[in-house]
Amino acid sequence: MSENSVLSADALRRWLTVYLATVIGEPSESIDTRVALSTYDLDSIDAVTMAIELEKKFTLKVHPDLFLLGHSSVEDVVAELCTHAVAGR
Asked: Is CATH 1.10.1200.10 the right assignment for the domain spanning 9-87?
């Protein structure tokens, strides 16, 4: 992440929610950010694509496995990415 950009948990949460809703073909309001992403039947291709798009949008290094861990929710992903972004400064 560049020094001039600030990772906002809200912006990251919003992006992940909208992206996930688009992938599964549901309105973003239907996404519960606290439930496991596995609930939404993401496959490895979805995870790789989401990681690439997230890296482009937020200039972060994201491993696709982050989305495939059975217990990971949008909130878990946001917390993990924000923690690593702060640690990397």
From this structure: yes
Residues 66-86 have pLDDT tens digits of 988 877 999 999 999 888 765
Q: Strand (E) positions, the chain?
A: none
Task: Identify the CA nearest to 36 among candidates 78, 79, 80, 72.
Answer: 72
**What b-and-e string marks burial along 31-59, b requiring 16 or more CB atoms within 10 Å of the CB?**
bebeeebeebebeeebbbbbbeebeeebe
Where exactly are the structural domains of the chain?
A: 9-87
Q: Tell me if the pTM is above 0.70.
A: yes
* Spatial contact of 56 and 39, defined as CB atoms under 8 Å apart: no
pLDDT band at 1 (very low <50, low <70, confident <90, very high): very low
